[in-house]
Amino acid sequence: CEDCGKSLIGECKLHGPLIRAKDRVIPSRARLTLPHYLTLRVLELRAGNQQILGVFAKKVIQKRTQFGPYVGQLSTKLTCYDESRLVLQVLKDGGKYFLDTPNEDCGNWMMFVRLARNQEEQTLVAYQHCGEVYFTTVKPIEPHTELKVWYAADYAKFMEASAVFIKEESDVCPLPPVAKEPVDPLICSSCGSTFATFALLESHQSIHKDQV
Fold it and tell me: What's the CATH code of the domain at 152?
């Protein structure tokens, strides 16, 4: 304490605690990359102050508008899985890698775009080009409309996915034909968990291998 001239453990009983000044909160890399005509909205607040975010248009966005590339870390397995986001993989140097975004400083704003549960709410299509993933609008997006994405036909085959699973209704809603794959959920033989795509199941099973 500079007033007492003493070195104390904890607060000074005579002069009280110090006035603490906090650093300014800096937005994450992902939030800073958000285009000016898009905005993030908190859709749900879960335990531990976990925010469920969505990306919304602030003005009309024309059809065939391309966003990207998607920024993420190349990984052989996902370190963080969010059931409301698309699982994305790319081919790099002959290998197949996940685009992993364990935190907001490892990706760009595209990591906040939620998956489309059916064709009606889909506004974006995801596809791979030259080892990168891009999102392109499939129809004009009106102001205050949430951007939602699903795989393009060829990319769905690459991801071994063909349908969108709606959790609330425990049902499968088909999008435009993309692949003649079964729409039944894929089941982990070790724990019985179900997954919508083979890539996601494969990443999950690697956790059991690590435990063994």
Answer: 2.170.270.10
Residue 13 lies in a domain: no
CB-based burial of residue 185 (10 Å sphere; 0-12 exposed, 13-18 middle, 19+ buried)? middle
| Residue 156: strand, helix, or coil | helix
Q: What is the pTM of this model?
A: 0.70
Give the residue ranges of DSSP H helices in the chain: 29-32, 153-159, 198-211
C-alpha radius of gyration, the chain, whole number = 22
Question: For residue 39, how many other CB atoms are within 10 A of its CB?
Answer: 13
Total domain count, the chain: 1
pLDDT band of residue 84 (cuts 50, 70, 90) is confident
Structural domain of 42: 29-159
Is there a domain that residue 171 lies in? Answer: no
Q: Answer whether 131's CB lies under 8 Å from 141's CB.
A: no
Note whether residue 118 is domain-resident.
yes
User: What tens digit of pLDDT does each residue of 33-57 get?
Assistant: 999 999 999 988 777 777 889 999 9
Q: How many helices (H) and strands (E) are present in the chain, helices listed first?
A: 3, 14
Q: Is residue 204 part of a domain?
A: no
**How far is the C-alpha of 27 from the C-alpha of 52, rounded, in Å?**
16
